[in-house]
């Protein structure tokens, strides 16, 4: 039996499609203010197996050691994310931010990824969409989820618009906040030039809040449901954030 809530969501999804397309220009204007001047690198690192947390500890020491070189190259090591659910203990994600003269960017990224404890580094070059704002940094409490989407490139403006308009409702209902929605630069690993990868980075007070937030009220639920219709694939992990900006 279909619940009243599901009926309302279904009706709202249909109603959300046309306004979302019409708001695409508005969202495009908002994008110009998000992360103005900044570009990002997301490094998904796999360290070699080791007893306990020895490999991860060795890599994190290397990461701290390379932070000054990243700053000298015009960048900032915002911090790193370690797994709670969804990744192995060998995985760490690094978020770098760049502004101004970034001529040293490639060398700095190679240096960061050169430690012998590293088995593999997958790099995604990112651009902020409507979030984060230039002064915004991740919080150090609670958990973060990193959710990757694959979306048809032609659907990206609507995908961003739906997200941007759903978040205020969502954030009023739950102790949660979207840090950033990033668009990944095309890479040889992409499945098709017509498909774009998007990274959604969201803070939750706890895993319990994340679970409760799977059932938002009808209006944001309708926009999220439409966004799901636009998503070709999605995967998610929950993580703990540690800053390295000090």
Largest sheet data: 8 strands, antiparallel, barrel
Query: Taking strands numbered 1, 2, ... along the chain, how are they ordered across the largest sheet?
Result: 1-3-2-8-5-7-6-4
Helix amount: 25-40%
CATH fold name of the largest domain = Alpha-Beta Plaits
Identify the overall geometry.
globular
The CATH class of the largest domain is: Alpha Beta
Mean pLDDT: 89
Number of helices: 7
H and E order? HHEHEEHEEHEEHHE
Low-confidence stretches: none
The appropriate CATH architecture of the largest domain is 2-Layer Sandwich
Distance between the termini: 54 Å
Q: How many extended strands?
A: 8
Beta-strand percentage range: 25-35%
Taken together, the total number of domains comes to 2
Task: Supply the key terms.
Alpha-Beta Plaits, globular, 34% strand, eight-stranded antiparallel beta barrel, 246 residues, alpha+beta, 7 helices
Description of the structure:
With 246 residues, the protein is α+β, with helices and mostly antiparallel strands. The model has no long low-confidence stretch (mean pLDDT 89). It folds into two domains: 4-36 and 131-243, Alpha-Beta Plaits (2-Layer Sandwich), CATH 3.30.70; 38-78 and 87-124, Alpha-Beta Plaits (2-Layer Sandwich). It has an eight-stranded antiparallel beta barrel. The chain has helices at residues 4-22, 24-31, 54-72, 105-112, 156-173, 207-212, 218-230; strands at residues 38-47, 75-85, 91-99, 118-128, 143-152, 176-184, 195-204, 231-243.
């Amino acid at each position: 039996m279909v619940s009243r809530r599901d009926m309302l969501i279904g009706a709202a999804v249909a109603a959300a499609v046309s306004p979302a397309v019409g708001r695409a220009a508005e969202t495009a204007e908002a994008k110009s203010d998000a992360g103005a001047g900044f570009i990002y690198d997301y490094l998904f690192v796999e360290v070699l197996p080791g007893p306990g947390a020895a490999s991860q500890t060795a890599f994190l020491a290397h990461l701290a050691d390379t932070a000054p070189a990243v700053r000298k190259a015009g960048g900032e090591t915002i911090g790193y994310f370690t797994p709670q659910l969804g990744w192995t203990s060998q995985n760490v994600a690094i978020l770098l931010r760049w502004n101004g003269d970034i001529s040293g960017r490639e060398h700095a990224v190679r240096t960061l990824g050169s430690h012998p404890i590293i088995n593999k580094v997958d790099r995604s070059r990112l651009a902020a969409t409507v979030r984060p704002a230039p002064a915004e940094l991740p919080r150090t409490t609670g958990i973060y989820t990193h959710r990757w989407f694959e979306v048809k490139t032609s659907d990206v403006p609507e995908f961003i618009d739906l997200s941007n308009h759903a978040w205020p409702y969502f954030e009023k209902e739950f102790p949660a906040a979207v840090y950033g929605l990033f668009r990944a630069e095309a890479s040889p690993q992409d499945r098709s030039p017509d498909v774009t990868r998007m990274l959604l980075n969201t803070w939750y007070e706890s895993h319990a809040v994340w679970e409760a937030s799977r059932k938002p009220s009808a209006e944001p639920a309708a926009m999220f449901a439409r966004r799901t219709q636009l998503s070709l694939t999605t995967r998610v992990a929950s993580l703990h954030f540690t800053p390295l900006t000090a």
